[in-house]
Amino acid sequence: MLKRTVFFTDSRAKSNVTVFDTTLRDGEQTPGISFTREEKLGIAEHLSDIGVHTIEAGFPASSDAERDIVSAIKRLGLTADVCGLARSLPADVDVCIDCDVDMVHIFIPTSDVQREYTIKKTREQVLEAAGDIIAYARDHLGLCMFSAMDATRTDPDYLIEVYRTAVDAGATIINVPDTVGVITPTAMKHLISRIDREVNCPIDVHCHNDFGLAVANTIAAVEGGASQIQVTVNGLGERAGNADLAQTVMALSSIYGIDTGIRTTSLVETSRLVARYSGMSTPPTQPIVGENAFAHESGIHSHGVITRSDTFEPGIMTPEMVGHRRRLKLGKHAGRHAVRQMLAEAQLVPTDTQLDEIVLRVKRVAGRGKRVTDADLYEIAENVMQLAPDGKTLELQGIAVMTGNHVIPTASVRATVDGEEHVFSSVGNGPVDAAVKAILGIVKTPVHLKEFRIEAVSGGTDALGHVTITVEDERGRIFDASASSDDIILASAEAVINAINLVCRTRKNDRKRKD
Ligand code: MN
Fold it and tell me: Sheet containing 420-427: which strands, arranged edge to edge?
């Protein structure tokens, strides 16, 4: 089963598992996140496209708006099954039926603490309620998932009894939720293999990340025999979130060779879509999809991956497999090989002595605690190589931005392009958007804005705004540039201009090389 090393010989893992995504339900319960109707429909469509087997679209009984969204998602006619959540109440199940969902997901608390302090039912009453509600749901629906809430803190003997009752009443799949994220991988594997041996029904798992173990526990459950995993995009969810879709899927497919049916080359795109809609970005170190997931900074690592990528990457997982890119980044550990390779991309070929000096200056800039962007590198290189300065293609002469609560943000830019003056105005979603659009309107060069980030360097209202932008040229090359100012609009404008000049300069060097 395992692709690389055999860690276990007692694995009950299936050769394929299905993915149940709950970004739109548990993910939306993330404090601070609320998706619009359009965003929820967009996410559902995307998840179905990438091969998610079941989408938990929401909790229809929670509000009229939620019911409307769940039925709208069902009406999209997606390949994925659409599931609605319900408490163990006939009225909740009825709302799901009204939404025409393919599956209802019914939960009831089973741990002593939740049973006594939330629903105030005895163990016997819970058993009876579970059997009754599942039988009721199965009279109307083909697919019914039963969830014993807080399963991992439930007496295991009683838990088995609850699951048997649900399966006898017609549950088509049973979910084992680690509701408060307290189990360990070893215990999870034991628990799931016991349920798999003693209850005749496919098993699904739902893990929370309170101790950072959600992905590990989900994988352990698969080792124990679970055939479906519950995940969310970017690990969104209650408190510390749920098992992350990208991480769980890639670990299962790359390490174990288990097929999840997910088109993994879209994972970065999926993460960015949900980050944009949720307004919650992932840290650079986020596995699989983070900005640094395949980035190399130290000289030793960069040299290694230039020669052969699996020297300092997993190898069984490449950036291409997840829709990412390998990038070399410069910092205080920069090495000659990385710098040479990055300059070659821009058709700059320094001598060995020049290269030494460039590396020295890069380290000096990084040593001052500054991130070294591509724009910084090329400026250093042109300086050291004493290249006749081409002059900047784009030079800003003036910028004016109008914004307020009763005006449409508008920006006017006056700039020279190769010495010739141009003026352009644009409206935008805000002053920064208007300014960036006005600048992009002046240049004819196709520059595709990939990422735009504004950070406040200090904490107060007088904070220095630091803008980093990433652009892609028509040959698919990626460049980054940055600028800082106590005026975020000016910092944004300068960063965009730096990036455009970088693309133009590289284009000129391309041409020189050809001549
Ligand atoms: Mn949950």
Answer: 394-402, 410-417, 420-427
d(CA 401, ligand 1 centre) in Å: 46
CA 228 to each of CA 53, 194, 250: distance values in angstroms, whole numbers, following the listed order: 9, 16, 15
Range with the poorest average pLDDT among 88-92, 381-385, 406-410, 426-430 = 381-385
Residue 400 pairs in a beta bridge with 412
457 Cα: distance to centroid of ligand 1 (angstroms): 35
Q: Is 171 helix (H, G, I), strand (E, B) or coil?
A: coil
- What domains sit in the chain, N to C, each tagged with a CATH number? 18-278 (3.20.20.70), 296-384 (no CATH), 394-514 (3.30.160.270)
Q: How far is the CA of 148 from the centre of ligand 1 (A)?
A: 12
Q: How far is the CA of 241 from the centre of ligand 1 (A)?
A: 8
> For the segment 470-505, what is each residue's pLDDT rounded down to a tens digit?
888 888 888 889 888 888 999 999 999 999 988 888
- Its pTM stands at 0.86
Separation of CA 93 and ligand 1 centre (Å): 19
Quote the ligand 1 centre to 66 CA distance (angstroms): 18
CA of 167 to the centre of ligand 1 (A): 22
Q: Following CA atoms 92, 173, 43, 470 in sequence, which dihedral angle do they give, to the nearest 10 degrees? A: 140
Q: In what order do the strands lie in the sheet with 465-472?
A: 448-456, 465-472, 478-485
